[in-house]
Sequence to fold (350 residues):
Amino acid sequence: MEPHVFYARTTDDVTIAYAVVGAGPTLVLLPGVPFSNFLEEWRIPTLRSVYERLAVRLQIVQYDGRGTGHSQRDVSDLSLDAMLRDLDAVVGQASIERFALLGFYNSCTHAIAYAALHPERVTRLVLFGGSSRGWLAMSAPETQALLSLIERDWSVFVESAAHAWMGWSVGEAGRLAADSFRNATTPAVARATFQAASAIDVSDNLAGVTAQTLVLHRTDIEQIPRAVSEELAAALPNGHLRLLAGGSPALFFENIDEVVGAITDFVIEGRPDGRPQRSAVPQKRNAHGLTARELEVLRLIAQGETNAEIAHRLTLSVNTVERHVANLYRKIDARGRADATAFAVRRGIA
Fold:
C-alpha cells in the first residue's frame, strides 16, 4: 500500500498536497503543523504499519498543512481560518461529504472549530494532546524550553523535538522522524505557526460540537497534564475521556494495538471504551440544557454515589465532577443532592 499524492487548491489559492488510502468510513488525519510531512511519515516503519492497519477498515485521508511538506511553502497566512480552508479544500477535491477528524496537539483546535462550524459533515472527533486553548497545550516548561531552540539552533531543535515528542527509546524511528521534521518546513514557518497556534482559543466553539468525541490521554505523559484532557472531554457536549497506559507523547508509538483498535472502533461504531456506545439518558431529558456529561453525573447522584465515586467511575478528577455538579444544580435549580435526585426521579433519569 502506497499513498499517491493529489493536490487541492484553497479559496485563497494555496496548493495543498493530500493522499487517500483504504476503504470504509472516512477518517481525516489533520496535519501536525508545522511538521506535517505525510510521505516521509510513510517511510517510518512504525507509522507505516499504523496507517496500513487503520486503512483496513477505514478510508484514511492525510494532507500536509500550508507551508509544510509537499504543500505550498511560500505562505503568510497561518491563522485558524487558513487551516480550516486547507481542510475544506482537501475534502472538497476528494468529494468527501461526511468524515471523522483526528486532531493532535496544535490541530486539536482546528478539529474543534471545524466540527462546530460543520456539524452536518463531521461524524466523530478523536483528539490527543491538545486543548481548546492553543497556549495551554504548549505551556509545559519542557515544551517551552524545546520551542526556544527554534531561534537558536534549528538542527538541535528538530533532533530534540523528534525524540522528546516520540520518546527517546524509539531509536531509528526517532532519526527518521527528525529527518521528516527537518524537511517538513523552515525555521521561520515553524516559529510563525507556533505563534499563531498559541493565540488560538476555540473555547466558545465547544458547545457547538455535536459529534461524539473521544479524548485520548496517556496516564504518564509529561507534556500534557491529565487535567487538561479531562477538562476538554468534560466541556464537549458528547466528550469521552479514554486513558491509555504509558507516557509516550506520540499517539502511534506506544500501545499500538490498543490505539488503532480504539480509533477504529470509535469511528465506525462510536465505542469510546470498547463497549457499544449508548446514551446515558434519552435526548428528551435534556430540556434543561444539561450536557451529556451533566446528565450522566446527575444519574449517578440519583443512584447515591458520592463525588469521589463518580470521579472514579467516569475517570475524572473530583474537581471536574464538582464543577459538573455545580453547573447542573444551577440549571435545574437544585439546592442539593436531594433536590437533584427528586428532579432525576420525576423525569425518569435515575
Summary: The CA atoms of residues 116 and 209 lie 5 Å apart. The first strand starts at residue 6 and ends at 9. The domain at 292-347 is CATH 1.10.10.10 (Arc Repressor Mutant, subunit A). The beta strands are 6-9, 15-22, 26-29, 59-63, 99-104, 122-128, 212-218, 239-244.
